[in-house]
Amino acid sequence: MAGAYDDRDGTIWMDGQLVDWRAANVHILSHAMHYASSVFEGERAYNGKIFESVKHSERLLKSGEMLDMPIPYSVEDIEKAKYDVLKANGWDDAYVRVVAWRGAGEDMGVASERNPVRMAVAAWEWGAYYGDAKMKGAKLDISKWKRPSPETIPSHAKAAGLYMICTMSKHAAEAKGCSDAMMFDYRGYVAEATGANMFFVKDGEVHTPLPDCFLNGITRQTVIGMLEDRQIKVHERHIMPEELEGFEQCWLTGTAAEVTPVGQIGDYNFEVGAIARDIAEGYEKLVRS
After folding, report:
1. Is 146 one of the annotated active-site residues of the chain?
2. What is the mean pLDDT of the chain?
3. What's the pTM value of the predicted model, to 2 decimals?
4. Which of 108, 110, 208, 221 is packed most tightly, with the most Cβ within 10 A?
């Protein structure tokens, strides 16, 4: 499948029914368009099975609660919708996007209690998020934007509005020939990439930023479990910028990114070493098992 995302053949689930891809539209006065009242999930299906599907559905509902936007579907409803989309399009390997948002209704200001909460599920065939970086290591810029304090946003929701600075950061990175950008948090600690969590290796042990002001990714949690199964010590902690120079390996984790080694962040270089390769290969086997 190729071409613009609004002009493709296929089927999308929308508000309880399967509709033609090109007919899956919303009104311009939908609340989400103006006030970012939208939450979403990104998932991957491998061999017809969506990895950690239920956890993603549960997180979608939790994100909706955090935005004061109760989603009118159960986990079971969301699960059925996702698999109905895969079946309707004939896909076994695909990226699945579930999105819920405040639609158009009687309110068109900041408040939107009277507007319906809507939901859609789309999927498409999508290869490696960072291209050939899985072999040679991704190159990252360092963003000028910082992940904000939990006192200013619902930082543990997977909400569309939280990605605005991520989009700007990634645009700036791509203009410099980079795949992505690393972001610090509001205190100056190493946080995450624009859509992926980060891991570092030093002296055979793994260090990963404490997700106290950004999303604790499902893939991140999976990888920590893999490392612990391998008897590799994992330190979840605040990481200072000056520590980057001392780390030997680095990789990114996320549903889209999967496990992607990093070769460079700004002026800091990393080897695509044994632990990074082992985790990347192990994750690939796990999701297809």
Report:
1. no
2. 96
3. 0.95
4. 208
